[in-house]
Amino acid sequence: MTLGVLLGLVLSCLFLLSLWRQSSERRKLPPGPTPLPIIGNILQVDLKDISKSLKNLSKVYGPVFTLYLGRKPAVVLYGYESVKEALIDNGEEFAGRGSIPVFDKINKGLGIVFSNGRNWKAMRRFSLMALRNFGMGKRSIEDRVQEEARCLVEELRKTNGSPCDPTFILGCAPCNVICSIVFQNRFDYKDKDFLNLMNNLNKNVEILSTPWIQICNNFPAIIDYLPGRHRELLENFTFLKHYFLAKMIEHQESLDINNPRDFIDCFLIKMDQEKNNPKTEFTCENLIFSAGDLFAAGTETTSTTLRYSLLLLLKHPEVTAKVQKEIDHVIGRHRSPSMQDRSHMPYTDAVLHEIQRYIDLLPTSLPHAVTCDIKFRNYLIPKGTTVIASMSSVLHDDKEFPNPERFDPGHFLDENGKFKKSDYFVPFSTGKRICVGEGLARMELFLFLTTILQNFNLKSPVDLKDLDTSPVNNGFVSVPPEFQICFTPI
């Protein structure tokens, strides 16, 4: 027998073994398209618009189905009922974080967002306490956001009403809020360290939204052996790791345990309290990755939402005029907006909700995983199986939101013009893994946008009919197209 024949037999056996294993596995899982060996269903998914592919597949296989993205299965939840039943009604069982090989390579299961088990619970509990209880030091988080809103207005005044791309300025504002919470101090928008930090964060989100990263996550061998933009991503994260490590060392040298200044101080104090606990989760590495998670989650997502908000307000001047009328009536022109104002501004509240619903920022959120074997809708989902929850299918449900593809603040108003809540409003995900920074993000969106509209009229240098509001990338994050805007002082 020649070597070529032997090699052919070995490959054939491996191929048949792969088919047998997939077939045996699939019998217990929800239905789905037949996967090909090795590559699974990757050819049936548009990596530039995953949510559209999931919508089409749900029409064939129902609200719970299985996809093979590479060799491993993922259970997809499509529609409000299946998402609620899994993430809320069976929240503990669906509270795991699904494997994302690119991030696994970087974070090694540490931090807040990509961790699991005891580590995740400890980091999440601590971060929620830190963000909710005291906003770090003697100043509340609202004070910090209001200060940054005033700085943002001053930066926008420097444009002198000329057309500008708002991407950079709108990225600086939420990044500075996180800097204030994590490092104590905000930065000038021209500070070199700040610009380096911003550039890395911006690049990372851009790369993460490319189809190439989806391929890397589905075929992890690529990460170690092939060139590509994932290499740039890994380099950027290495830069951020060293940046946060340097900040941690600075804080250790000036720490006053009786007067914590920020998130890092609080974490260092907790580390000292648990220094004799061999099983403690409060380590230097966890501090670095937790700080990194706060930046990654709290900067780009908020700045992208703000940018998309201005594009939609440009496109719909009648909506903007109503919001400004409500601002004049409730707040006036001589004081800064505060969170207490929101409950007296139903139309503005509805507009902010509709912006987040319409843009569908994270179409599939981050993957979940089941923490144990679970019987779900008569299917057996083994422990560790990845679960993809389609947030698009909830935010764009046509029964809850008539004409969901249309931007309409009326989706969140009742017949009397009062604000109307909806259980389908899930831009921050839902269940046990709901975003830690939800409260901060909602605060920033309200205070930044109302402060901008209190001080400026928005004008488009191009005809409104030429303004496109369709997202450029719809893989990981829905990114708005580039546009120019004029901020004309009122």
Automatic annotation (TrEMBL):
Its cofactor is heme. Residues 1-25 form the signal peptide. Its EC number is 1.14.14.1. It comes from the Eukaryota. The keyword Oxidoreductase applies. Its main location: endoplasmic reticulum. It is found in: Endoplasmic reticulum membrane; Microsome membrane. Keywords: Endoplasmic reticulum, Heme, Iron, Membrane, Metal-binding, Microsome, Monooxygenase, Oxidoreductase, Signal. InterPro entries: Cyt_P450, Cyt_P450_CS, Cyt_P450_E_grp-I, Cyt_P450_sf, Cytochrome_P450_fam2. Belongs to the cytochrome P450 family. This is unspecific monooxygenase. It comes from Microtus ochrogaster. The lineage of its organism: Eukaryota, Metazoa, Chordata, Craniata, Vertebrata. The gene is LOC101997258.
